[in-house]
């Protein structure tokens, strides 16, 4: 049985109305038609084309069909050749005059019609067609959901997930792909069942609060809940590795709390020329306790 794939471009707040141009769908006074154009790049184009490999039928709502039928028959790109060659099916309650070669209208019973299409085709793609997509969501009559999410917020316009959505489980089936301009491709498969629920209060981490602010000296000396602090780990590494010089000490001590673990090892005095010992709390080259300041 074939797959029904929904392909949509959407903003971060879920608006999918008229991504291609100002005249595509101005319904409701929508003034952002063509919002996708400034963010379209080669990476998006490559992913769009790769996603069409194996497509053998188009399934469209009436508005999207009219837009496609007025444009693609007059183009000669690879996508145009594909769209002009494969069968086109239109979902509409109205009686339509379909002038694009290879076009036909679905029957009044969408469920029955889609079952028949699945038996005839391997990869049926629904592009745009937001009103029709709500029916597919409501009846769970799709197998894949392919979303290009763009990093803009519009605040108004027709949404991908509007009134037709019912509780549904989806599974990410490919690694997410990001384009240089910030569009993110996400491919999902429909899975059985409805979303589960739980109680996060049963799983939260129990963090023991600290008694009060810690001094620099306490930060060096103690970890948290039995684990060594960053400084303790640094000191342990230094004191057990005789071939280290103070340049290594400086580099390792500038970690998170940025407290210097001072001194040079006696084994390295001849190499670096810095006298002193590896002792937590000693000034470099002196072996004397430091002031406890956080430095670096």
Looking at this protein, list some descriptive labels:
alpha/beta, 9-stranded mixed sheet, 16% strand, globular
Summarize the topology.
Blueprint: E1 3-11, H1 42-51, E2 57-61, H2 62-71, H3 78-85, E3 88-91, E4 103-105, H4 110-120, E5 123-127, H5 130-139, E6 144-150, E7 169-172, E8 177-178, E9 184-191, H6 216-221, H7 230-239, H8 246-253, H9 269-272
Parallel strand pairs: 1-5, 1-6, 2-3, 2-5, 3-4
Antiparallel strand pairs: 6-9, 7-9, 8-9
Can you put this structure into words, describing what you see?
This protein is of the alpha/beta class and 296 residues long. Helices cover 26% and strands 16% of the residues. Strands 1, 2, 3, 4, 5, 6, 7, 8 and 9 form a 9-stranded mixed sheet that branches.
Mean pLDDT: 78
First-to-last CA distance: 65 Å
User: How helix-rich are the residues, as a percent range?
Assistant: 25-40%
Strand content: 15-25%
Task: List the helices and strands in order.
Answer: EHEHHEEHEHEEEEHHHH
Radius of gyration (CA) equals 31 Å
Number of helices: 9
Unreliable runs, pLDDT <50, ≥5 residues?
216-224, 249-296
Number of strands: 9
* Sheet with the most strands, sense and barrel status: 9 strands, mixed
Which shape, going by the Cα principal axes?
A: globular
What structural class should be given to the helix and strand makeup? alpha/beta
